[in-house]
């Protein structure tokens, strides 16, 4: 058609400007906003008044602030209107796209859409005076010089006007501060909408959650509870957009169902189960039951000891009659870990069986989606059993740190009125409850805790995770960074820091193979170790790290000598040429 109408056999490809009667407009794509040399700078210098950006930017915690600052900086320097439109919803994977369309002019926010919503489309409208855009660059003489030297874009002239043909008085949109959710609000909203999108598109009957009475499973339960709250608020206040109600009726298979509360929705969509063993405590059982009651889930309590004993009996027969024992009962470390893993894996098998059969017991059809409960720090450290109850269909908290999950639960105490259940969970030390509560003689054993098992705190794990992924640190560069921070921040010696870094990398490399089977998780942190998309690294390492740990030891010795000389006031200059190759070489 182009050849027939215009005699053209080729067309130019690239950026161009559209010159209207009253404005010049241009467009850039998502990633250009974030690049070192964004297109909008050259466009402003070419006299563009309005730049649009049709974006597909996924959500991570605390990311919106960066987006807003980039747009404000882009328009403050050269003047102009920046119209930002972002995808909202899911793409069938680990990402949630969080909307928040914006209009920014001359460095100020004049329009912002909701970041999280069940509405598929939001329209943000602002009225601006383009004369303000034209006058802004005049304040910077250097802009005029740069505009004269910049490369020219081709222009396409279109006989069209954005403004009215006849001058008239219009009320201009006033500037307003950008709105930001707190991280705990983002956790409440993003993963909840991600779960709803996955449920409605997969056409399953609901969710199954192994509710242990700990922080992680409680956080997952609260995410589902908030999903139900969002659904109920939308259904009860929005009569024009009825797709969520129609989807809900399809899932519960009740064509006329209209919920009277968020708890009623939870009772239809969420099944929870406390899977007790002889190593479980009465306290965790009570916490899980109390939380399930407040949320409104369909809850049950079962005992897995019979399953575990059957597996142990088979293993005993296969191992020549030797029955494995916990360490408190005289067994070895290997036996102790194996017995813990038997319990954990039994829960996974039971969870999937219940997810398939529970709907039938209530006269319903379909399967339940099994929800995972491992957080990003435990995945990074490998502190979970491969194919245990962390193995699931989807995981709404798999990209969120333990520290942020605690903030989220405190938020739920107030927002969802769950304090009666969550306060006791928040003060209890995290524990797997996989070892006996008493020894063979009936004496109470030392309580098992996550941080003691891991050999590091959850806060330290978050620091290690960010340094490893976001700062590209191997053992040597991580030790170098922490050696300048932790002595004064935490009062740790260089030897203590070196021990912690070595322990982290040893455990990380031993357990890296587990990352290959991580449950698909909501992507909320850029230091996620999910190797299916965001952390493409090998899963077999030399766990001794001989080169890196050796270089770290020499660096530690060097720093200790420097500290000693500084303390003694010595003016001697130490020769560190022997360390030069190790210090300069980039370690993985």
A few lines on this structure:
The protein is of the alpha/beta class and 588 residues long. The chain is built from 22 helices and 13 strands. The chain is globular, with a radius of gyration of 29 Å.
Query: What fraction of the residues are assigned to beta strands by DSSP?
Result: 5-15%
Helix- and strand-based class? alpha/beta
Mean pLDDT: 90
Q: Which sequence of strands runs across the widest sheet? A: 8-7-4-3-2-1-9
Q: Given the C-alpha coordinates, what overall shape results?
A: globular
State the total count of DSSP E strands.
13
How far apart are the termini? 55 Å
- Percentage of residues assigned to helices: 40-55%
Rg is: 29 Å
Helical stretch count? Answer: 22
* Major sheet characteristics: 7 strands, mixed
Low-confidence residue ranges: 571-588
Key structural traits:
single chain, 588 residues, alpha/beta, 7-stranded mixed β-sheet, 4-stranded parallel β-sheet, 22 helices, disordered C terminus
Please describe what this structure looks like:
The protein has 588 residues and is α/β, with parallel strands linked by helices. 45% of the residues lie in helices and 10% in strands. It is built from 22 helices and 13 strands. It has helices at 2-6, 39-45, 64-78, 130-135, 141-149, 183-202, 215-237, 243-252, 262-269, 282-295, 305-318, 333-361, 376-381, 402-415, 419-427, 450-454, 458-469, 475-483, 486-490, 494-511, 546-568, 580-584; strands at 17-19, 24-29, 50-55, 81-86, 88-90, 96-98, 102-105, 108-112, 155-157, 206-210, 270-276, 298-303, 368-370. The strands form three sheets. Strands 8-7-4-3-2-1-9 form a seven-stranded mixed β-sheet, with helices on one face. Helix 10 (282-295) links the parallel strand 11 and strand 12. Helix 6 (183-202) crosses helix 14, helix 18 runs antiparallel to helix 20 and helix 18 runs parallel beside helix 21. The longest helix is centred in the middle third of the chain and has 29 residues, at 333-361. The radius of gyration is 29 Å and the shape is globular. 38% of the residues are buried. Residues 571-588 have low confidence and may be disordered.
